[in-house]
Amino acid sequence: MSALQPWPVCPRPQPDESLPSWFERVGAEYQMTPHALLSSFDQSDGPVAATAARLGRVIADRLQAPRVRGKIAALSRLPDTACNTLWPSSSTGWELTDGAFRSYCPHCCLGDLREQRTPYGRRAWQQSWCTLCLYHGMALVLRSPHHHRADTQWLAQKLRADAQYLTPDRYRTLKVARESNLRCVILGSLVEIERAIGNALAGLSPNPLCWGPLTPTEFLCIVTDLTTWSLTHFEPVRAWSLAEDLSGAEEQEGYGLIGRRRRLSTADYPFGHSLRTLREVTEPKIRGSALWVAHALMSASHVGASDRDANSALQERQSSYLRRAAPAARAWLANQQRQWPAEYRHRWWITDPSSDNSRYDPHPSVKH
Q1: Does 128 share its domain with 174?
Q2: 116, 133, 166 — which closes off a domain?
Q3: Model confidence pLDDT, tens digit, residues 139-185
Q4: DSSP string of 76-119, one letter each residue
């Protein structure tokens, strides 16, 4: 540790910057990739062998090691407050498993360029529930692995193209005179559920008129169950997950917000997992699809761009999604619901989600 010579040039981290983003900016000062910069002072794990798609995750994991933190603190001469921000002592439990700088908001990054600073990754973009920039109301864009090369800098032309691609004019007119009108589009539904998750993580109870009588912990547990359920391929054959089984209107209206990836089966999951959670999906569009399904299943008011259940009652929407699910998926969800509050289940859900003949109560106690 004492033999390390401090870096002669080291940019200070932004207050809301993620660790992988800051380390990438340090490497750019020396025309080095994050991999090359890390290897220049830490070889304790030996050479890193990984594909371009996985290299960012490997580097992000190594940056969290205490020995690496100590070396970086000495090389960068960062004050303790900055180190504690880059390496927080606690986590939300919703961080993406792939901790690399993968997603970005083109409008935020264009703003960085206007302020004459290098675009950087925000910590919020590392959260699995975050698929939108709530400040700009825009979908996050997935970075190419080649963005991590030192000779590939942020180009204003590319950022402007991304921003134009995601302009709100591509969706239905978003009426913002009243907050409730945000529910009229997929974008509004995602804004609503992502704000509710962020508030619940801060200890604020969700609006009971919208989400039912739930504590913050109960709300987060149910969102976790529903997104895991909708992302998991319970079928033994390759298929889209239920989160990606979108109607024609949903695909068209959610262009740039929600979408599909290649067909998968559980054999494609990493580390032999049998379930696919929100944290394990890097692509923000696919996570947005799962949150869209969770909103449809949980929210008392879900008026969306769908050609199969728009304006329908809550239990009718639940029944519609469950009828399309595999029997194993219905059984899994029914088992998870045993851990949910009994009053919430009774008032807010259909009676038997595991049944092939799931029916909704035409006169539910929940008012719509």
Answers
A1: no
A2: 166
A3: 899 887 655 444 346 677 778 888 777 665 444 444 343 443 444 57
A4: HT--HHHHHHHS-S---S-B-SS-SS-EE-HHHHHHHHHTTS--
Q: Are residues 129 and 162 in the same domain?
A: yes
Find where tokens 């870096």 sit. 7
Tell me the residue type at 13: P
Name the helix (H) or strand (E) containing 235.
none
One-letter amino acid of 256: G
- Token pair for residue 135? 């400040």
| Residues 134 and 178 both lie in one domain | no
CA gap 7, 41 in Å, rounded = 11
Among 320, 331, 328, 338, smallest CA distance to 353 is for 331
* Structure confidence at residue 366 (pLDDT): 44
Q: Classify residue 346 by burial, with Cβ atoms within 10 Å: 0-12, 13-18, 19+.
A: exposed
**How far are the Cα atoms of 94, 155, 196, 282 from residue 337, in angstroms, in the given order?**
21, 48, 20, 27
Structural domain containing residue 145: 19-166
